[in-house]
């Protein structure tokens, strides 16, 4: 799809916005959907696609090409491999400078869409720090978490120091920014396979959200911790956290929150082995997602919560429950529309479905592809999920695809 003559011609002329538009349309992805993934507005994506041969942010090009699976060369980017660009003896100061520049570049489009004069003197620090957090989040789609974690922790220390010195409404606004940054630090720790640190950071995010006096943000952070616990296999704890998130919102729960929390509840039930409860929660989530307006209400970082996301949650639940009918009842690979690490995790769930259906060759061919992504991004979460899929097969005579997967998996220590 990305190698059509029109795409190649647009690439040769340097019209990378047209490359993105043609690839997006070829995959039947809307501008609004792409905007949600990139953390931009729909109008910003429209301007990007109409930029012609002008100047582009390499970070936005990298994120768009990763999501749309466009070969980097077609948008003027070099292929990146692990360790590439890291000089021998590169020290921590140089690393922080590198990501500081990258974050500034990624933040530029977000700054551009803010109306002039929107940020007043009372909110300037909070707005600037929030934009930095958003920029680091965008880099997550193209950067190993291990490369981001240190600079994000330094950013979080700055937020916390600034918050401690603030008073009144500024302190509450900065506490909200700290909550967002702590949550992202938890996400990075989770991706690195450091579950203890992930829980600690998510806990800090919940406390900071409460200090900010923001029920919506508090519920989101409690729900995020619940999502982590569900994926970690702690079903009862995940379900308890979903209930807490709902109590926080009480009767002020927006529809998108209903859909998102029900999907997490389904994952919690799946982790606890309760198929029927998981099915009920998925039905609730799907019904709520289908009724959402195209312009959804504000809900931190849960953008475009569509029925397709509920379908992806069903795949994950089916993989945990050993139900191939839940995993393989449609073109499930078409659901893998997140960035590369998210796609790899869903592909591993699909592999688990094939394995449960008695197709180990297909399962481990897919798992090997996902493991390549995990190695490339040094993602402990992907590698450990791949190990879990392998452990679920017990045989004394593994087929060739399994033996090749074992060779690939052997000796990986992240």
How would you characterize this protein structure?
It is built from 20 helices and no strands. Helix 3 (31-38) packs across helix 4 (42-49) and helix 11 runs parallel beside helix 13 (255-271). By secondary structure, the protein is mainly α. The longest helix has 24 residues, at 168-191. The radius of gyration is 21 Å and the shape is globular.
Q: What is the helix content? A: 55-70%
Question: pLDDT below 50 for ≥5 consecutive residues: which ranges?
Answer: 80-98, 101-123
Given the structure, what is the number of helices? 20
Amino-to-carboxy terminus distance: 34 Å
Supply the helix-strand structural class.
mainly alpha
Instruction: Please provide the count of β strands.
Output: 0
The main β sheet shows up as: none
The string of secondary-structure elements, in order, is HHHHHHHHHHHHHHHHHHHH
How large, in whole angstroms, is the Cα Rg? 21 Å
Q: What spatial form do the alpha-carbon principal axes imply?
A: globular
Q: Taking all residues together, what is the mean pLDDT?
A: 83
Strand percentage, roughly? under 5%
């Amino acid at each position: 799809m990305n190698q059509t003559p029109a795409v190649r011609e647009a690439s040769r002329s340097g019209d990378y916005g047209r490359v993105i538009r043609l690839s997006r349309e070829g995959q039947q992805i809307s501008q609004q959907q792409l905007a949600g993934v990139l953390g931009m507005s729909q109008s910003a994506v429209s301007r990007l696609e109409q930029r012609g041969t002008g100047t582009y942010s390499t970070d936005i090009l990298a994120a768009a090409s990763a999501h749309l699976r466009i070969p980097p060369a077609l948008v003027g980017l070099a292929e990146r491999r692990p360790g590439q660009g890291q000089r021998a003896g590169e020290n921590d100061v140089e690393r922080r400078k590198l990501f500081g520049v990258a974050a500034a570049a990624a933040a530029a489009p977000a700054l551009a869409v803010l109306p002039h004069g929107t940020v007043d003197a009372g909110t300037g620090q909070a707005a600037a720090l929030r934009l930095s957090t958003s920029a680091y989040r965008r880099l997550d789609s193209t950067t190993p978490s291990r490369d981001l974690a240190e600079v994000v922790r330094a950013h979080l220390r700055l937020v916390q120091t600034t918050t401690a010195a603030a008073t009144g409404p500024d302190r509450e606004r900065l506490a909200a920014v700290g909550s967002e940054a702590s949550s992202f630090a938890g996400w990075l720790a989770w991706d690195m396979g450091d579950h203890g640190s992930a829980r600690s950071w998510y806990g800090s995010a919940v406390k900071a959200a409460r200090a900010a006096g923001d029920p919506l943000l508090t519920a989101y952070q409690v729900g995020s911790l619940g999502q982590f616990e569900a994926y970690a296999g702690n079903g009862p704890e995940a379900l308890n956290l979903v209930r807490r998130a709902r109590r926080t919102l009480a009767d002020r729960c927006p529809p998108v929150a209903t859909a998102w929390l029900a999907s997490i509840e389904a994952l919690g039930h799946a982790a606890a082995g309760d198929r029927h409860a998981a099915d009920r929660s998925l039905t609730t989530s799907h019904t709520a997602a289908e009724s959402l307006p195209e312009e959804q209400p504000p809900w931190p970082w849960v953008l475009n919560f569509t029925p397709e996301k509920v379908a992806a949650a069903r795949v994950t639940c089916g993989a945990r429950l050993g139900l191939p009918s839940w995993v393989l009842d449609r073109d499930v690979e078409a659901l893998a529309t997140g960035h590369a690490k998210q796609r790899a995790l869903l592909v591993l769930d699909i592999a688990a479905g094939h394995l449960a259906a008695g197709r180990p060759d297909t399962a481990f061919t897919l798992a090997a592809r996902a493991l390549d992504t995990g190695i490339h991004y040094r993602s402990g979460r992907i590698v450990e999920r791949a190990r879990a899929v392998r452990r679920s097969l017990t045989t004394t005579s593994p087929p060739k695809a399994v033996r090749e997967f074992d060779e690939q998996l052997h000796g990986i220590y992240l």
